[in-house]
UniProtKB/TrEMBL annotation:
Compartments where found: Cytoplasm, Cytoskeleton, Cilium axoneme; Cytoplasm, Cytoskeleton, Microtubule organizing center, Centrosome, Centriole
Name of this chain's protein: NUBP iron-sulfur cluster assembly factor 2, cytosolic
Pfam family, one: ParA
Family, as annotated: Belongs to the Mrp/NBP35 ATP-binding proteins family. NUBP2/CFD1 subfamily.
InterPro entries registered for this protein in UniProt: Mrp-like_CS, Mrp/NBP35_ATP-bd, NUBP2/Cfd1_eukaryotes, P-loop_NTPase, YlxH/NBP35
PROSITE patterns referenced in this protein's UniProt entry, alphabetically: MRP
Entry binding sites for [4Fe-4S] cluster: 194, 197
């Protein structure tokens, strides 16, 4: 642990999950990676700072919760009796989640700054921070608020067409400018897994994530296929990793979770 005081003092590793644009599966990956890390015996927290689309509470089937305060700050919501997966979503604090859509930058920045440092996590192995899409004031607010604590790095989520779009490259430039280490790139929605025969077909081009990783000299963490069983599990708030332990998608997610742990451990 670091010698700092405060709510992140007992958090061993902090990882940001970023994407250049919305809808590429950033919240999905955050949720599944958290579940995979928990399956590997780790204590995990998710901080959902996606002000305009907090979707993780639904994915983890905890819905809208009333969060409580203790002396140290906001008490996160635990998804299980063992308290091995804790979640704090900015959505819990908003009376009406649609309100934030019209907030101006400074109001969002102030709320995020306070939010990041005010959650009483207790002891955690990994804290995954799900950020809004793009590179905005909100991201800077997250990075600034976490600066006191050592952030291990960022996972960048992209789709197979990554190379043809500039948004992930902007994301990488953001990491460089803010001194965030890129732990690696994940290609999501990489091929379609047929629910009948489990065969994987490449609907879009494939390999954009890997190519981008090479071009930008970043590690490639792996591909997750477009899997209807994954989206329906998320929709129903079911733990996909427990429901489909034999699926190729499970294997892919697990492999990425282990690659993240290794990358953090190796770089210390
Ligand atoms: N590998 C996948 N297979 C099937 N469905 C997926 C996969 N990844 C994501 N999805 C689905 O795609 C939709 C968008 O995913 P998600 O909400 O995770 O994206 P996001 O990047 O977090 O979006 P935003 O930043 O706008 O919140 C969801 O309905 C999710 O269930």
């Amino acid at each position: 642990f670091s010698t700092e005081k405060g709510n992140l003092a007992q958090v061993r590793h902090v990882v940001l999950v970023l994407s250049g644009k919305g809808g590429v599966g950033k919240s999905t990956l955050t949720t599944e990676l958290a579940l995979a890390l928990r399956q590997a015996g780790k204590k995990v927290g998710i901080l959902d700072v996606d002000l305009c689309g907090p979707s993780i509470p639904r994915m983890l089937s905890v819905g809208r919760q009333e969060v409580h305060q203790c002396d140290a700050g906001w008490v996160p919501v635990y998804t299980d009796a063992h308290k091995s997966l804790a979640l704090m979503s900015i959505g819990f604090l908003l009376e009406n989640p649609d309100d934030a859509v019209i907030w101006r930058g400074p109001k969002k920045t102030a709320l995020i700054g306070q939010f990041v440092s005010d959650v009483a996590w207790g002891e955690l192995d990994y804290l995954l921070v799900d950020t809004p899409p793009g590179t905005s004031d909100e991201h800077l607010a997250v990075v600034e608020s976490l600066r006191k604590h050592r952030v291990d790095g960022a996972i960048l989520v992209t789709t197979p067409q990554a190379v043809s779009t500039g948004d992930v490259r902007r994301e990488i430039a953001f990491c460089k400018k803010t001194g965030l280490r890129v732990l690696g790139i994940v290609e999501n929605m990489s091929g379609f897994v047929c629910p009948h025969c489990s065969e994987c077909t490449n609907i879009f081009s494939k390999g954009g994530g890997e190519e981008l990783a090479k071009l930008t000299d970043s590690p490639f963490l792996g591909c997750v296929p477009l899997d209807p069983q994954l989206s329906s599990s998320l929709e129903e708030g079911r733990d996909f990793l427990q429901a489909f332990p034999d699926s190729a998608t499970f294997g892919a997610i697990n492999q990425i979770a282990h690659a993240v742990m290794t990358s953090i451990a190796e770089r210390g």
